[in-house]
């Protein structure tokens, strides 16, 4: 079944057909959104077909993902996602909430949320016969790519700033990745991966660049939908989702998941999404709050300033979420 219609640019909204080496909009370099064939999916599947699947990982949502099954049975790539929810009563009572859940992404095989994106990117790499996958990373994204590539016999090349934590570099090496330390910051490493990808034909996993990373991250929204929203006690009640901002792509990925469910008619309302940043590192929160206090023209300028984070700002605005409380 072809579940995948093509890409749509986040800036100019133009649609593009599927292509192996298209990562961003050729016209304005905007991020591309994968457009699922929701009509076909809806004709073939009902909610019960999805939530009755036995696999307790993100692969239970394969019918809603733009990739084929990558295989790898019996390896860690089959254990990514479908992470547990905790309901800590002490915190719930302290906050005065009726319902409260914490989703434990540390259960993923290399210990972070980044496994979701890497799993889907690797599935894509297998489909297009890409033997080498490259990414820029200061830690978790590289570890996720390295660990899951090791699981399925693909080669990972990680460009990491030389200031990256030694423990994270060690994790990359333990997984057998080729690690290139860059005499510069993350942006320098990012640029080098793009150049290497073009020069050597390597498949590039970079977050905020490869559209399939968001397709992995959206599976967390599917799980929240299945584990919480499908639950009887909150089915008719709105929920809010609090997400650490990171580089901005986690929130936009989760928003994409809820949008897909809404398009399928399987979700009534998209939950409010709240971005969480620490006060000492609040660039996105500041941009968002400034944008709320200004007019549309200035908002566009702010969005351009923060590049790929356009998805994030839109996700927060469209769900009536925020970054400050
Ligand atoms: Zn465009």
Short description:
By secondary structure, the protein is an alpha/beta fold. It is built from 13 helices and eleven strands. Residues 9, 11-12, 14, 25, 27-28, 30 line the site of zinc ion.
Kindly describe this structure.
The protein is α/β, with parallel strands linked by helices and 325 residues long. The protein has two domains: 4-73 and 214-318, Rossmann fold (3-Layer(aba) Sandwich); 114-211, Rossmann fold (3-Layer(aba) Sandwich), CATH 3.40.50. Helices cover 41% and strands 14% of the residues. It has helices spanning 38-44, 47-51, 89-95, 114-127, 140-152, 166-174, 186-200, 211-217, 219-229, 249-264, 283-292, 296-305, 310-318; strands spanning 4-9, 15-16, 32-36, 85-86, 102-103, 132-136, 155-161, 178-182, 203-204, 240-244, 272-276. The strands form four sheets. The protein has a four-stranded parallel sheet, with helices on both faces. It has a three-stranded antiparallel sheet with strand order 2-1-3. A two-stranded antiparallel ribbon has the order 4-5. The longest helix has 16 residues, at 249-264. The chain is globular, with a radius of gyration of 19 Å. Residues 295-310 have low confidence and may be disordered. The structure holds zinc ion.
Essential attributes:
three-stranded antiparallel sheet; 325 residues; four-stranded parallel sheet; binds zinc ion; Rossmann fold; 11 strands; alpha/beta; 41% helix
Write the layout of secondary structure elements.
Blueprint: E1 4-9, E2 15-16, E3 32-36, H1 38-44, H2 47-51, E4 85-86, H3 89-95, E5 102-103, H4 114-127, E6 132-136, H5 140-152, E7 155-161, H6 166-174, E8 178-182, H7 186-200, E9 203-204, H8 211-217, H9 219-229, E10 240-244, H10 249-264, E11 272-276, H11 283-292, H12 296-305, H13 310-318
Parallel strand pairs: 6-7, 6-9, 7-8, 10-11
Antiparallel strand pairs: 1-2, 1-3, 4-5
This protein binds zinc ion (ZN).
């Amino acid at each position: 079944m072809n579940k995948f219609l093509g890409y749509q640019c986040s800036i100019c909204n133009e649609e593009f057909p599927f292509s192996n080496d298209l990562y961003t909009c050729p016209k304005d370099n905007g991020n591309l959104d994968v457009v699922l064939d929701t009509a076909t999916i809806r004709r073939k599947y009902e909610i019960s077909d999805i939530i009755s699947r036995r696999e307790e990982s993100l692969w239970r949502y394969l019918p809603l993902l733009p990739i084929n099954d990558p295989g790898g049975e019996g390896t860690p790539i089959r254990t990514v996602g479908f992470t547990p929810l905790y309901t800590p009563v002490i915190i719930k009572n302290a906050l005065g909430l009726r319902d409260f859940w914490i989703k434990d992404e540390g259960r993923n095989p290399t210990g972070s949320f980044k496994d979701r994106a890497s799993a889907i990117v690797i599935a894509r790499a297998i489909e297009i016969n890409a033997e080498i996958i490259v990414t820029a990373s200061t830690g978790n994204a590289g570890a996720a790519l390295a660990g899951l590539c090791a699981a399925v016999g693909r080669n990972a090349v990680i460009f990491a700033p030389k200031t990256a934590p030694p423990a994270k570099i060690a994790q990359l090496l333990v997984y057998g990745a080729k690690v290139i330390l860059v005499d510069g910051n993350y942006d320098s490493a990012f640029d080098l991966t793009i150049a290497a990808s073009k020069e050597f034909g390597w498949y590039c996993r970079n977050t905020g660049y490869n559209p399939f990373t968001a397709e992995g991250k959206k599976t967390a929204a599917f799980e929240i939908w299945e584990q919480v929203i499908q639950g009887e006690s909150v089915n008719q009640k709105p929920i809010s989702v609090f997400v650490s901002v990171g580089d901005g792509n986690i929130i936009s990925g989760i928003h994409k998941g809820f949008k897909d469910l809404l398009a399928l008619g399987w979700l009534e309302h998209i939950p409010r999404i709240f971005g969480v940043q620490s006060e000492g590192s609040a660039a996105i929160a500041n941009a968002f709050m400034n944008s709320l206090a200004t007019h549309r023209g200035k908002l566009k300028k702010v969005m351009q300033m923060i590049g790929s984070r356009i998805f994030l700002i839109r996700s927060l605005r469209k769900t009536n979420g925020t970054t400050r409380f």
